[in-house]
Design a protein that fits this description.
Length: 329
């Protein structure tokens, strides 16, 4: 069976791609920065099929050659090892940086890290690249009535002028990856998820930004927010996201950007779904509903990948029930 490489196998997204790929019978080479870290590897090695078909490697995106061993013999690379950078090296929040520091310390490391992974893949003769980006690359300066993957393109300079370096890193990374893959004749698919929920492979992911709103209610009985945020939000179930990645790899015609989330809901409606999972919890104070309708998307391309996508209420319900089952003991 075919071998694939998952860069960032210990991450929320990467570990779910590993799980999905193992379930489909692939041999998987996974990377994390320290493959000797058993607090992470033991959860990956406990996945069904892992003992026979998963090998883990240490690799750091700052060093392209550290990925060479993990790429050897693979047909595709799935890149989920470039989490957002929120602070400069000295701890300054990204939003407080000027243009030069923001680019050098927030945007450039992600761009270069992606190019380092791609260079290792190119050296290994890999022809298929599945790259995890984010909806933060889908916010053009003039809002769209309905977003499509082709039109919902952030403008990096516009974002950086507002101090949004952590958002700008994604569109800069995508553009660099696109240019690299054209030059090296590699097929590139880019995925655009947003806040992700759903069962996690590693317990460490319960502390991630994505799960904290629901966990605060279910586990601590108290909301993270003091008042319900205004505006709308989308959500993705991480298992649906992983399926989109693997389905796109398995469809040779698939290329380009793909939304990897559901229709947005107003935050008031999201909290109403959260509340069903934690009826005793104290909820944030209500705030007036936004006059703006929730962001709308055209999901034609996403749905062309053939994944039966959940929706936000189903994802929140499944995640809440899973959390209450005390999954990690
Ligand atoms: N989580 C969300 O809700 C969400 C929402 C939208 C978009 N995304 C996007 O999804 C992608 C993956 O995010 P995630 O939430 O899965 O991140 P994550 O849970 O923080 O995992 C990141 C993965 O990358 C590895 N990694 C971190 N720094 C690295 C480096 N310098 N070199 C090599 N590997 C490194 C980590 O390994 P070790 O730390 O074990 O070394 C881990 O395997 C990112 O591009 C993120 O922007 C995530």
């Amino acid at each position: 069976m075919t071998q694939i490489t998952v860069a960032g196998a210990s991450g929320l997204v990467g570990s779910n791609i590993v799980k999905e790929a193992l379930e489909r019978g692939y041999h998987v080479h996974g990377t994390l920065r320290d493959a000797e870290d058993t607090s992470k590897t033991r959860w990956l090695m406990a996945l069904p099929g892992a003992a026979q078909r998963l090998t883990l490697f240490s690799a750091d995106a700052a060093d392209s050659h550290s990925f060479d061993a993990a790429m050897a013999g693979s047909d595709a690379v799935f890149i989920a090892c470039l989490p957002p950078i929120y602070r400069a090296a000295d701890g300054t929040p990204a939003r407080e940086l000027d243009r030069a520091r923001g680019y050098d310390e927030i945007v450039r490391p992600v761009r270069n890290g992606c190019l380092n992974v791609l260079a290792a893949a190119a050296r290994a003769g890999i022809g298929h690249v599945m790259l995890c980006s984010s909806t933060s690359s889908t916010n053009p300066p003039v809002p769209l009535a309905i977003k499509t993957e082709a039109t919902a393109l952030s403008d990096a300079e516009h974002q950086m002028a507002q101090g949004k370096f952590t958002a700008a890193e994604k569109i800069v990374m995508e553009t660099a990856a696109q240019d690299f893959c054209v030059e090296h004749q590699m097929r590139l698919c880019v995925f655009l998820p947003t806040m992700m929920l759903g069962p996690t492979v590693l317990p460490q992911h319960l502390d991630s930004d994505s799960h904290r709103f629901l966990i605060a209610l279910v586990r601590d009985g108290k909301a993270v927010h003091e008042t319900v945020p205004q505006g709308s939000m989308s959500v993705s179930h991480v298992a649906d996201v992983a399926k989109l990645f693997v389905n796109a790899y398995e469809r040779p015609d698939a290329r380009g950007r793909y939304f990897a989330m559901y229709e947005s809901l107003d935050w008031a409606d999201i909290y109403a779904e959260f509340a069903k999972q934690a009826p005793q919890a104290s909820l944030p104070a209500p705030s007036p509903r936004s006059n703006e309708p929730p962001t709308r998307f055209d999901f034609t391309r996403r749905d062309s990948l053939g994944v039966a996508m959940r929706d936000i209420p189903t994802t929140i319900a499944e995640t809440g029930q899973w959390l209450k089952s005390d999954p990690f003991g």
